[in-house]
Amino acid sequence: MQYAKAVPKTPKKIIEKLQQLLAHSYSPYSGFAVAAVVKSRSGRLYGGVNVENAAYPLSRCAEQSATLQMVSAGEREIVEVWVMSRGKQPATPCGGCRQVLSEFAQPNLPVHCLSADGPELHTTLGELLPHAFTRQYLDGPGKK
């Protein structure tokens, strides 16, 4: 994975949405604000922020928040993801978020990681999580 300055160029409306969302992050314990936008198969954009809790395991990441918004709206497929943090370098989704994204996306899902300071990292979910645990490993009624 390598940093890219503008290839592919992140649409201005996505950057503006991420910046607006970033202001709503609830991160009083880590001070590490994160915003995410997922694009569904229908083209609709769903946003989320990290929401921390004094009982740390109950906190939610921005990517999870955005995905939950999408699922709550009745959609089930993510086709693109953007994540923005306030660090000097772009932060990638954590391991748990990679797994959540893999439930609703294919390995070739474009994942765009941005820093509010400018640097960008463009990768795919398959590069971030090469051996995802997916429904193919499960037996039962939901197996396809």
Question: What does this molecule look like?
Answer:
With about 140 residues, this protein is α+β, with helices and mostly antiparallel strands. It has one domain: Cytidine Deaminase, domain 2 (3-Layer(aba) Sandwich). It is about 25% helix and about 25% strand. The chain is built from four helices and six strands; from the N terminus they run βαββαβαββα. The protein has helices at about 10-20, 60-70, 95-105, 125-130; strands spanning about 5, 35-40, 45-50, 80-85, 110-115, 120-125. A six-stranded mixed sheet has the order 1-6-5-4-2-3. A hairpin with a 4-residue loop joins β2 and β3. The longest helix has 11 residues, at about 10-20. The chain is globular, with a radius of gyration of 15 Å. The protein starts with a strand and ends in a 16-residue tail after the last helix.
Biggest beta-sheet profile? 6 strands, mixed
Low-confidence stretches: none
Order of helices and strands: EHEEHEHEEH
At the fold tier of CATH, the topology name is Cytidine Deaminase, domain 2
CATH superfamily: Cytidine Deaminase, domain 2
Taking strands numbered 1, 2, ... along the chain, how are they ordered across the largest sheet?
1-6-5-4-2-3
Q: Which band does the percent of strand residues land in? A: 15-25%
* Rg, Cα atoms, Å: 15 Å
Number of strands: 6
Principal-axis shape? globular
Average pLDDT, to the nearest integer? 92
Helices, by number, come to 4
Span between termini: 32 Å
Computed structural class: alpha+beta
Number of domains: 1
